[in-house]
Amino acid sequence: MKRTSIFVMLALAACTVFAAVDTDRALKLEPNMEQRYASNIATRFLTNYHYKRTRLDDELSSQIFDSYLKLLDPNRIYFLAGDVEMFERYRHGMDDALRHSDLLSAYDIFNVYSDRVQQRADYARNRARQPFDFTLDENYQYDREDEPWAKTTAELDELWRKRVKNDYLRLLLTDKEDEAIVETLIERYDNLERRINELNTEDVFQFFMNAFAQSIEPHTAYLSPRTSENFEISMKLSLEGIGALLGRENEYTLISSVVPGGPADKDGRLKAGDRITAVGQGNDGKMVDVIGWRIDDVVDLIRGPKDTVVRLEVLPEDASISGPTSIIDIVRNEVKLEEQAAKSEIIEIPVKGSEDEVIKIGVIDLPVFYLDFNGRAQNKPDYRSSTRDVRKLIGEMEEQGVAGIVVDLRNNGGGSLLEATTLTGLFIDKGPVVQVRNSSGRISLEEDVEPGMAWEGPLAVLVNRYSASASEIFAAAIQDYGRGVVIGEPTFGKGTVQSLLDLDDYAPSDKPSMGQLKITMAQFFRVNGGSTQNRGVVPDIRFPSAGDPEEYGERSMDNALPWTSIDSARYDPSGDLSRLVAVADSRYQNRIIGDQEFSWLLSDIDEYNEHAKETSVSLLETVGREKMKEEEEKRAERKAQREHGGPLLEENSVLAETVNPDLGEYPDLEGDTAEASDDEEEEEGPDLLLREAARIVADMVELESDIDLLERQFARLNAEPVENAKLH
Fold first, then answer.
1. Is 469 annotated in the active site?
2. Higher pLDDT among residues 717 and 156, named by residue
3. Which pLDDT does position 237 carry in this prediction?
4. Do 655 and 570 sit in the same domain of this protein?
């Protein structure tokens, strides 16, 4: 039986929110008084204190209406044109609804949406059981964002016929048997129905308030009480629980894996694959049956204070549904979430002309700028901080003789502004790091006040299009001070500052937890006066990248603030790296001409750009198999060359990706749309961009140690035009 890929850390529940299964949708969802009260407080803050001055009027109401429909049905595959026409009566009334805390219109729309999703699930299940003709030349349009709404149920049925046919074909191409394909698809569409039935009144409130917030500006959001708690956990990298990853298998909550070093791991009885059937509190608390519950609710039962006991009734992986269960009691404790913590490795770059000599380049991989705010406020000696962890890693790498450092911020979506400032302070002597302008126009400075540096040697910051917010503050400061070289792609372009407002602070004491508002209160500017907003940080040395830069990042987002600038701050640059950058860039450009991995990368980029505008896929089995054959041959050829290609193609470890924490929360009802083989994992090639960044830093080490060599090569660059075109 295939398991759904919904994994949740105990006490780090995924942002997608579900509820205990309620299959009786005759009972429509409605707002409660707490949500009406929360909407009133949130509306006042959003319209009076946001950095972007906003009027709650018919124009904003229309934007909220469109945003809400897009959030619920972005691909236009559930609602009918008649539904949307019926909803039009709400278009210019959303402002009045929010002003008077009347949320019924949002719930009316959602209840229709819920009905439509269930109808589509019914249709998809029935259609999956019928045969398909894969010799018929037709296409499935998977991107319908800009298409008109289907006018009739028959038209929507035709869209879904092709959708189900495509789902079937993806599995058929992996050589699954027809019976297994149907079983997999039925389970997929069952999950679709289950997920819509699991959504509760709190979820609908969160969806609607986020449609409101993001109609003002894309990084403003409402966080439900549960989401707020998870955000705090993600920042301090620790929780109090048992330490396990939860998944879903049909109606069961599944132990996907056990966190190394956590209470469950040390106890040793709970295993991956075990199914939780009930949860009890303490040594003798009542066992609560959790079969059919959503994962977040099971998490709430298992989560708890340190040194308390939780009891799990567990059905072992190899036992049948009617098999015997066992009770496992585990004492909760602190669990460290090390997968998001700073990590290091060392890459050895051979010295040209020497058989034995190497230059050691240290790599610091930082997935997020984290800080345990409460631990810091309480002055705990061991509170988690990205700056403290990076300082420790630098010391360890110095002991191992590194000559240069790469700070890898690829896919780092940001985090604590304070951490961006203090981390920059590890690499500059002292001075301003970022300027912050609030909604009234007042400008303040975030400064490094500690003299001295943890690392004074050659430095590079590796970024990509998903490096955002705090990552951009750090990269921009390193660039403006001339302290290091920024390498990679232009960054995301998020130059705004958000504050978390706890709505409970503005409510009567008898009100329950109402969540938080993440609201944009300021904009940050580089010390040179420019903003990273919209434009991002442009690297000194650019790596090739796919797609149009205008179609990703902040510049592609609705309602994003424009780029602007202010006066430069007073700061003392460390030096001018322009000559060093020019020579290092020239070496990089010449080096990759003979690099097979870069040749493959450029080929993949060309292929991506060629198909970037496509919105449909062929439903011919012959076409699908031909494409699979081409991909398999390409992977096999590359694998063979990597195995026999010599030092140029040696693998370095591929660093983990991280999710941008600023992405909004949307109803994720679709599940996986692309189906890979269950028995085969895709081959991963070397992380050539990290490898090349390390080589660039090794060049900097050599050039800085030989000023005469740098001057000669820079003079030659000015005297002779570079023949190979730069890669952008």
1. yes
2. 156
3. 55
4. yes
Given the residues 67, 224, 234, 469, select the one marked as catalytic. 469
pLDDT digits (tens, 9 = 90+) for 693-703: 999 999 999 99
Q: Which residue, of 170, 185, 216, is where some domain finishes?
A: 216
Query: In terms of C-beta density within 10 A (0-12 exposed, 13-18 middle, 19 or more buried), how is residue 352 classed?
Result: exposed
| Residue 480 annotated among the catalytic residues of the structure | yes
User: Residue 232 domain-assigned?
Assistant: no
**Distance of alpha carbon 590 from its chain centroid, rounded?**
34
Per residue, what are the HEC states of 1-58?
CCCEEEEEECCECCCCCCCCCCCCCCCCCCCCHHHHHHHHHHHHHHHHCCCCCCCCCH
pLDDT value of position 322: 65
The Cα 275–Cα 17 span in angstroms is: 21
The answer to whether residues 381 and 280 belong to one domain is: no
Assess whether 312 and 349 both reside in one domain.
no
In a domain, 223, yes or no: no
| 181 and 242 share one domain | no
Residues 391 and 315 in one domain: no
Residues 367 and 656: beta-carbon distance below 8 Å: yes
Strands (E), 217-318: 221-223, 238-241, 244-249, 252-258, 275-281, 288-289, 309-315
Q: Which phi and psi angles does 268 have, rounded to 5°?
A: 90, -10
Residue of 480, 504, 540, 699 marked catalytic: 480
Spatial separation of the C-alpha atoms in residues 191 and 185, rounded to whole Å: 10
The encoded tokens of residue 173 equal 């191409």
Same domain? For 47 and 93 the reply is yes
pLDDT, tens digit (0-9, with 9 covering 90-100), for 510-526: 656 788 899 999 999 99
Q: Quick check: is 574 catalytic?
A: no
CB 77 within 8 A of CB 120: yes
Residue with tokens 């298992």: 302
Tell me whether residue 37 is in a domain.
yes
Report which DSSP code applies to 565.
Answer: B
Residue 244: CATH number of its domain: 2.30.42.10
Domain that holds residue 293: 238-336
What is the rounded CA–CA span in Å between residue 192 and residue 124?
10
Q: Which residues sit opposite 406 in a β-bridge?
A: 363, 460
Contact 245, 271 (CB under 8 A): no
Distance CA 497, CA 525 (A): 10
User: Taking the chain, what is the end-to-end CA distance rounded to the nearest angstrom?
Assistant: 46
What's at 473, amino acid-wise? I
- 4-37 burial, b if ≥16 CB within 10 A, otherwise e? bebebbbbbbbbbbbbeeeeeeeeebebeebbeb
Reported for 606-615, long-range contacts at CB under 8 A and 24+ positions apart, including other chains, are 608/546, 608/547, 609/546, 609/547, 612/546, 612/547, 612/548, 615/141, 615/142, 615/143, 615/144
Same domain, yes or no: 421 and 491: yes
pLDDT for 85: 98
How far is it, in rounded angstroms, from Cα 10 to Cα 7? 10
Structure tokens at 533: 């907003």
The enclosing domain of 580 has a CATH number of 3.90.226.10
| 703, part of any domain | yes
Number of domains in the chain: 3
Calculate Rg over the CA atoms of the chain. 27
pLDDT at 375: 82
User: Is the domain of 255 the same as that of 108?
Assistant: no
In 384-441, which ranges are continuous DSSP H helix? Answer: 386-399, 417-424
- Using DSSP's 3-state secondary structure scheme, residue 580 falls into helix
Q: What is the pTM of this model?
A: 0.79
3-state secondary structure of 528: coil
Which one is catalytic: 162, 236, 343, 494? 494
